[in-house]
């Protein structure tokens, strides 16, 4: 398509009275503060989207971005235009060396009792990074991880990239760091592309998530209790304030002792102060420090007797009644990663009311975090059986099914959530989902469903 703009139109675009408002909307939606002082570059990229969408002024393009149906896919296209988006397998090999030689052995030793490993790749683009991690797991750590539940979740703001990531087929350019003999071990030729072998897709899942607009940590989005978070070359676009906020949220998403790996271009500023800094050859790593162990009993009974006094006075003291559990207690334990206590709370609640759909729903969320997939699935199904109108149960069951590789069931679940959301006012909130509104959940469900495409 030829440009509808004459050569001088880029300057005219910047002078459009609504250009500042349009730019602010894009920055607020994506966090792309990188363009705060780069109007010439931003407007050139913006102009290409004006051409494709056949709009001539900032006001009409702003209306397009705000459109409930046409807006999200257009924002996807704009994001692809304004981000570099280049990634390839085993980019920055020193990072993978550090993971193999330092981080993962430490996590394997730490998690040997539960035999699970949970990784989040935030800003995964079209998939080379999470698949590189999968190859690393199965190539270099196969013996140590045999029989483990090791999962890698890739998230991104671009649905089209996520769809390509799930497909797992790549051009030569994405494999340029691999010698041909190595490439042939992990990929099969597929016309002009290379399809990653099925074994390296096992345990790898993808879902939509916007670091700027969508909540995390979040039980409902399955974004919590990670052992390792990888977020490389994403925060270079963000301002210092936003970067600090996201790093704080990453810190909350990590289990005690968990690790964060960022890109070499991310600034090493005071925002990383809550992490322990570890230097490895060619890379700086960040670790969440262990927290002092909490005693649930100490929280319930703040005045504790010393042992000798307790023995001497036991006969005189009436038995203290155990506090009645609530879902708020379960959520409190879950929010700080005390999954055993969260599970115990849910089990106590289920003993009292086994027909309460919310009790089963929360128990399902907790069981998934504890990697008990069988019980998680049973509890989520029970929640839906008891309350067919539970939007959150349908939505989360979609995420659960997606992570287990059942894409058709995931698609049905997301569609069920969308069908139920049609009857709800946009501003209705869901307290069990961090106060997310019906409008926001509708957007997320639609994006997850759209991302699945024909596979649903």
Q: Describe it for me?
A:
- About 50% of the residues lie in helices and about 15% in strands.
- The chain is of the alpha/beta class and about 450 residues long.
- It folds into three domains: about 10-80; about 95-290, Rossmann fold (3-Layer(aba) Sandwich), CATH 3.40.50; about 320-455, Serine Threonine Protein Phosphatase 5, Tetratricopeptide repeat (Alpha Horseshoe), CATH 1.25.40.
- The chain has a seven-stranded mixed beta sheet, sandwiched between helices.
- β11 and β12 form a beta hairpin.
- α1 packs across α3 (about 40-55), α2 (about 20-30) runs parallel beside α4 and α9 (about 160-165) packs parallel to α20.
- The chain is globular, with a radius of gyration of 24 Å.
- The model is unreliable at about 1-10 and about 290-315 (pLDDT under 50).
Give the topology, please:
Elements: H1 9-15, H2 19-30, H3 39-53, H4 58-66, H5 71-82, H6 93-110, E1 116-122, H7 128-140, H8 142-145, E2 149-156, H9 159-167, E3 169-170, H10 180-186, E4 187-190, E5 193-196, E6 204-208, E7 226-231, H11 240-253, E8 254-262, E9 275-280, E10 283-288, H12 296-300, H13 307-313, H14 327-335, H15 339-352, H16 357-369, H17 373-386, H18 391-403, H19 407-421, E11 429-430, E12 436-437, H20 438-452
Parallel strand pairs: 1-2, 1-7, 2-6, 7-8
Antiparallel strand pairs: 3-5, 4-5, 8-10, 9-10, 11-12
Helix pairs in contact: 1-3, 2-4, 3-5, 4-5, 9-20, 14-15, 14-16, 15-16, 16-17, 17-18, 18-19, 19-20
């Amino acid at each position: 398509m030829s440009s509808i703009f004459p050569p001088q139109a880029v300057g005219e675009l910047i002078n459009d009275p609504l250009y500042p408002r349009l730019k602010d909307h894009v920055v607020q939606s994506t966090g792309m503060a990188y363009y705060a002082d780069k109007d010439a570059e931003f407007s050139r990229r913006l102009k290409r989207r004006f051409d494709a969408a056949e709009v001539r002024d900032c006001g009409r393009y702003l209306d397009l971005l705000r459109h409930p149906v046409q807006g999200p896919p257009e924002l996807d296209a704009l994001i692809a235009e304004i981000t570099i988006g280049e990634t390839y397998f085993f980019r920055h090999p020193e990072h993978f060396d550090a993971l193999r030689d330092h981080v993962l052995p430490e996590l394997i030793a730490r998690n040997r009792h539960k035999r699970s490993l949970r990784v989040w790749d935030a800003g995964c683009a079209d998939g080379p990074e999470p698949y590189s991690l999968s190859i690393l797991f199965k190539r270099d750590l196969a013996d140590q991880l045999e029989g483990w539940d090791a999962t890698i979740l890739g998230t991104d703001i671009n649905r089209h990239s996520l769809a390509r990531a799930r497909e797992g087929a790549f051009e030569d350019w994405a494999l340029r760091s691999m010698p041909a003999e190595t490439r042939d071990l992990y990929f099969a030729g597929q016309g002009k592309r290379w399809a990653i072998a099925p074994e390296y897709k096992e345990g790898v899942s993808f879902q939509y998530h916007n670091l700027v607009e969508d909540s995390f940590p979040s039980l409902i989005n399955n974004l919590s209790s990670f052992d390792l978070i990888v977020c490389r070359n994403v925060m270079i676009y963000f301002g210092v304030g936003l970067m600090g906020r996201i790093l704080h949220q990453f810190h909350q998403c990590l289990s005690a002792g968990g690790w964060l790996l960022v890109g070499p271009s991310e600034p090493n500023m005071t925002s990383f102060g809550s992490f322990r800094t570890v230097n490895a050859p060619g890379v700086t790593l960040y670790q969440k420090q262990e927290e002092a162990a909490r005693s649930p009993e100490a929280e319930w009974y703040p005045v504790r007797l010393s042992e000798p006094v307790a023995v001497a006075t036991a006969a005189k003291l009436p038995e203290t009644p155990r506090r009645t559990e609530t879902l708020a207690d379960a959520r409190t334990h879950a929010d700080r990663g005390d999954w055993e206590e969260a599970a115990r709370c849910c089990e106590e609640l289920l003993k009292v009311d086994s027909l309460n759909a919310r009790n089963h729903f929360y128990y399902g969320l907790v069981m998934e975090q504890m990697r008990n997939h069988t019980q998680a699935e049973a509890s989520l199904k029970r929640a839906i059986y008891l309350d067919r109108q539970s939007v959150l149960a349908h939505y989360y069951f979609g995420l659960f099914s997606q992570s287990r590789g059942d894409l058709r069931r995931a698609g049905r679940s997301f569609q069920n959530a969308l069908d139920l959301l049609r009857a709800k006012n946009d501003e209705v909130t869901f307290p069990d989902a961090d106060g997310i509104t019906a409008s926001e959940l509708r957007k997320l469900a639609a994006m997850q469903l759209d991302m699945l495409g024909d596979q649903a």
